Description:
Blueprint: E1 7-17, E2 26-41, E3 46-51, H1 64-76, E4 82-89, H2 99-114, H3 123-134, H4 140-145, E5 148-154, E6 157-163, E7 172-175, H5 182-187, H6 195-212, H7 219-222, H8 229-232, H9 237-248, E8 253-255, E9 262-264, H10 270-278, E10 282-284, E11 294-295
Parallel strand pairs: 3-4
Antiparallel strand pairs: 1-2, 1-11, 2-4, 2-5, 5-6, 7-9, 7-10, 8-9
Amino acid sequence: MRLARDAVRVRVPATSANLGPGFDALGLALGVWDEVTVRAVAGPTTVTVVGEGDGALPDGEEHLVVRAVRLGLDRAGAPQAGLELVCHNAIPHGRGMGSSAAAVVAGLVAARGLLSEPEALDDDAVLTLATQLEGHPDNAAPALLGGATAAWVDGDGPHAARIPLAPGLRPTVLVPQSQLLTHTARAVLPTQVPHADAAFNAARSALLVLALGGRSELLMAATEDRLHQSYRADAMRGTAQAVRALREAGWPAVISGAGPSVLVLERLDDATARTLEEHGWQVLDPGVATTGAHLL
């Protein structure tokens, strides 16, 4: 295998995982995009970050995009080289919007774009390698495929399938100023849950697939959760309060991924959005990213 190009540019969307009851399984691609340019060079690896993460991320081999490119090239049996990265980041970091999954998927898709035989890194291979780096495929799947996805892992590894979406779905994302690391949010989860709670979430996840496909009257019931949000409430009290207040007002609000952002599976009215902005939330109306990571 050889490198057919010396440079590629990749665009990859933000994502929101779980969507309430679909813990570690369901995800949605959002219209907030990172763009990464990867160039193979003879010299040492360098990383330039513009936007989110500027000054806070590694600028060499430890950068997540670099690690993903390396992993992809190794998988394809392609030669390694020095890398020059320029990352224009719009996805907020540490907010539950899939920034790390976006970095991993961007690196793997960039590696595919460099190859003389890109089919060596097909979507199945990219999802497998992304899950290897991420630990679970719920964010990587929509970042790779776009739209809404269901992801699962079996003896053959990770898999994902797209969920049909109603064309009128307009999610809102509420982004706080504070950050929360994913491993911190996962650390508060119990190792076991009551059987009744597991059954509750199984039913709600199935219902959510119907709601996303057009049965919008089901969204409130379909976004109920007993597996993770209540356990995380103390770690993100402002988020928990916002979700509770929005749901009491009739909005299908959930924690976005591991938080602390809030995902509302409807477009908020202007008055509600202004109130939230007055309380320090950044209100995004990103739309659904119907395509996943792709070369420009």
